[in-house]
Amino acid sequence: MRKSLFLLPILFVALILGLSSVFVVDEREKALVLQFGQIKAVKEQPGLAFKIPLIQEVVKYDDRILSLDTDVIEVTPSDDRRLVVDAFARFRISDVVQFRQAVGVGGLRAAEDRLSSILNAQIREVLGADQVTSDTILSEDRRELMTRIRDQSRALARSLGLDVVDVRLKQTNLPEQNLEATFARMRAEREREAADEIARGNEAAQRVRALADRTVVELVSDAERVAQITRGEADAERNRVYAEAFGADPEFFAFYRSLSAYETALTGGNSSMVMTPDSEFFDYLKGADRSRAGIGDAAAQ
After folding, report:
1. Which residue range(s) make up the domain with 292?
2. 152 and 70 share one domain
3. Is residue 128 a contact partner of residue 82, using CB atoms and an 8 Å limit?
4. Residue 70 is assigned to a structural domain of this protein
5. Rounded-to-integer distance, Cα 20 and Cα 39, Å
6. 3 domain-assigned
7. What digits encode the pLDDT tens for the residues 258-269?
8. CB proximity list for 208: less than 8 A, separation 6 or greater
């Protein structure tokens, strides 16, 4: 009985030590077995692994492709137009032993800080190189520039045990203080273009109005000319007819003209005329009175 009580603690301690000597390596991880800070084993294959309990420890690192957003920095291309650049990178831990030796206990956070410094330096170097202008950065050549940044950063990141998979420029903008001036210049250019368009439109409208006015004057002049010709021809025809009528019967023509004159002069209820009694204007009226008087005398007889 006493022996059983003595063995239970030993079995319990042995079980604890046995369990603490086993660890699992996930397929998304790499593991290092450290003994007093020194690397004793590298576990890159997933599955169960063993270590010496209490003496050795296990440090695990992510084996997947990781993302890093760099700080927003300002670069000055060769045309001296400052740009604000925001980039990000994709990387993974390629050599876990070298990674541990490079960053020590700082782990992934320390590696990201050092990789961010490398990326910022390479971005400034590539985008600030000769023959690289702001237009180049904003054009299709941007892809080639990103490839150069990736390759140069990859070469420097190998010392950290990292493999830079890709580098991308997310945004490339003008600094805030330059945006207002740029927008103001763009606004002024658009207003100038609008004023030019309005001026050209007004000029075209004036030409159209002048052409329309000239066309109106020409049409009215032609119409009046044709009307005058038509009136002249009509008057000539009328005079010809009158002349023929006068030549055929002068007495009747004089009588007709007198009646027309009476009709024109004696219109209205209050027509007044002042002339001498012996005027020839009323010859036919006087003749009509004499005719009526002669008819009356004949009837009296």
Report:
1. 249-265+278-300
2. yes
3. no
4. yes
5. 18
6. no
7. 777 777 776 666
8. none
Distance CA 162, CA 160 (A): 5
Single-letter code of the amino acid located at 165: V
Count of domains for the chain: 4
Residues facing residue 29 across a β-bridge? 62
Q: Which pLDDT tens digit goes with each residue over 168-207?
A: 988 877 766 655 666 777 888 888 999 999 999 999 999 9
SS3 label, residue 17: helix
For the chain, give the longest Cα–Cα distance: 197
pLDDT tens digits for 134-148? 888 878 888 899 999
Nearest to 115 by CA among 157, 146, 72: 157
The DSSP output letter for 94 is S
Name the domain boundary from 142, 174, 206.
174
Any domain includes 143: yes
Same domain flag for 78 and 148: yes
